[in-house]
Specification:
Layout: E1 8-11, H1 19-25, E2 35-40, H2 42-52, E3 70-75, H3 92-108, E4 113-116, H4 121-126, H5 134-142, E5 148-152, E6 157-160, H6 170-173, H7 176-192, E7 200-204, H8 219-233, E8 237-242, H9 244-247, E9 258-261, H10 264-275, E10 280-284, E11 289-292, H11 310-322
């Protein structure tokens, strides 16, 4: 049966990692009414499925045709043989090719959302490719100057002002312009994608105890409070700056519709401790919806049968629920 909706693209990630394991664990029977196009290498996925004792025979994806519900495969060539757990520099361009094909399809309307499998950022960078992370790469490739990484869990949402940067660079990067842009992007997404007409947003402080009145730093008073006050005057329900060590406790975490965190490890350890395999990485500020798993390539688990597919299912479910129906 052909689908009346554009399919969702799903990249299979780093070939030596668990991305292929997760892809072959996707079950077409659980995708009732949804067409999903895997973007990867058929031989690699068939070999990984055989290693895991699973059957894997999705039909080829034919661009321009009405996609069948369930899985189909857009086959892309690899440069070298893949050994599970062993990174191969020759295959690094293939990883970006899978992402680029998904981006192109989303921009043209061929796909209605992009779900990405895990990649190895350092490996791509060491291979000489321009990649710091999916968020930054997607922003650059789509001409979106300030994409926002947001983690969505069963009970809270946390967006980041800075992402994959050294901790020593964070104070310089947390400026009024970047914080303002993040607030605008998050508020728009809460209204338009998540159906919250009058969202409430909490913003964390940069320093311990949110600076404690300037005792531990002045960024809260000098940068953060003026931005928040400007948005309050425009009608946005925004609170803060909150001390990061108490904001995500059980008594306060679910109060706002979203939290804004100033740097990567300020809140992600909490998210991954409490919601590992149920959190979904969502990129805001793009022309299309992109979601991803909340974990890495786990090279040591590739081909072992121990990789759990739940995080990828959550990322795909989120895309199915929130992507436009075109």
């Amino acid at each position: 049966m052909g689908s009346l909706r554009s399919p969702i693209a799903l990249t299979t990630g780093e070939p030596a990692g668990i991305g292929p394991d997760l892809a072959v664990q996707m079950d077409s029977a659980t995708l009732a009414g949804t067409a999903v196009v895997l973007i990867g290498n058929r031989k690699l996925l068939e070999e990984r499925a055989h290693r895991l004792g699973r059957s894997f025979a999705p039909p080829p994806y034919v661009p321009g045709s009405a996609p069948a519900d369930g899985l189909s495969l857009l086959d892309l060539p690899l440069a070298a043989v893949v050994r599970p757990g062993h990174l191969e520099p020759a295959n690094a361009p293939y990883v970006l090719e899978t992402i680029d094909r998904g981006i192109a399809g989303c921009l043209s309307g061929e796909f209605r959302a992009l779900v990405t499998g895990p990649v190895h950022k350092a490996h791509l960078k060491n291979a000489g490719l321009p990649f710091e992370g999916h968020t930054e790469y997607l922003g650059r490739k789509t001409g979106s100057p300030e994409p926002v990484m947001m983690f969505v869990t069963p009970s809270l949402r946390v967006a980041l002002v800075t992402t994959h940067v050294a901790l020593r660079d964070v104070p310089r990067l947390v400026d009024a312009g970047r914080l303002d842009s993040t607030l605008v992007t998050v508020a728009r997404a809460l209204r338009e994608r998540y159906g919250i007409p009058d969202p409430e947003i909490g913003v964390l402080g940069l320093n311990p105890h949110a600076g404690e009145g300037g005792l531990f730093g002045d960024e809260e008073e000098r940068i953060i409070r003026p931005v928040l006050e400007a948005h309050r005057l425009q009608g946005l329900k925004v609170s803060g700056p909150w001390p990061a060590d108490t904001a995500l406790t059980p008594h306060t975490a679910a109060n706002p519709d979203a939290w804004i965190s100033l740097y990567h490890d300020q809140t992600l350890p909490v998210i991954k401790y409490a919601f590992f395999e149920t959190a979904v990485n969502v990129t805001l500020g793009l022309p299309f919806l992109r979601t991803s798993v909340d974990h890495g390539t786990a090279l040591e688990l590739a081909g072992s049968g121990k990789a759990q597919v739940h995080s990828l299912r959550c990322a795909l479910d989120h895309a199915i629920r929130h992507a436009p129906l075109h």
